[in-house]
Amino acid sequence: MVLLFGLSHELPPFWPRTDLTMTNNLGGPVLTVHCKSKDNDLGVHMVAAKTDYHFSFQPNIWKTTLFFCSFQWNNQVKQFDIFDAPRDQDDGYKFNWTIKPDGPCKLGKKIKCFPWK
């Protein structure tokens, strides 16, 4: 009974939405970002230098939510899993990333940089 009550589409979820912000720190060029999950295509977004692209989502309870993005600038095309639940979900509900030529960095108490895929 409690499970059915919690899964109703009319009730708020048991956990907050996750907010994710990416800042274009490439040093000048416009960044083209295209993010998707298994169920959602967020479309293509043009992000000017030193500006942000933001989206929010509801991660699933199984910790399998994955948002993967392609990043394009100049003649570069890079890819990265910008939200990977096993890696990120225990870090809270607000994520700030800086996108640099050598890879994305997750900001927080500690800055953690990752290589492109």
What this model shows, in words?
By secondary structure, the protein is mainly beta. It has a single domain (16-113), classed as Domain of unknown function DUF5300 (Immunoglobulin-like, Sandwich). It has helices at 2-6, 85-88; strands at 18-24, 31-36, 41-47, 52-57, 66-73, 76-84, 94-100, 103-107, 112-113. The strands form two sheets. Strands 4-1-7-8-9 form a five-stranded mixed sheet, with no helix packed on it. Strands 3-2-5-6 form a four-stranded antiparallel sheet. The N and C termini lie far apart (44 Å). It is found in: Secreted. Belongs to the plant self-incompatibility (S1) protein family.
Look at the structure and name the CATH superfamily.
Domain of unknown function DUF5300
**What percentage of residues falls in helices of 4 or more residues?**
under 10%
Topology-level CATH name: Immunoglobulin-like
Element-level helix/strand string: HEEEEEEHEEE
- Rg from Cα: 16 Å
Instruction: Tell how many strands the DSSP assignment holds.
Output: 9
List the domain count as a whole number. Answer: 1
Strand content: over 45%
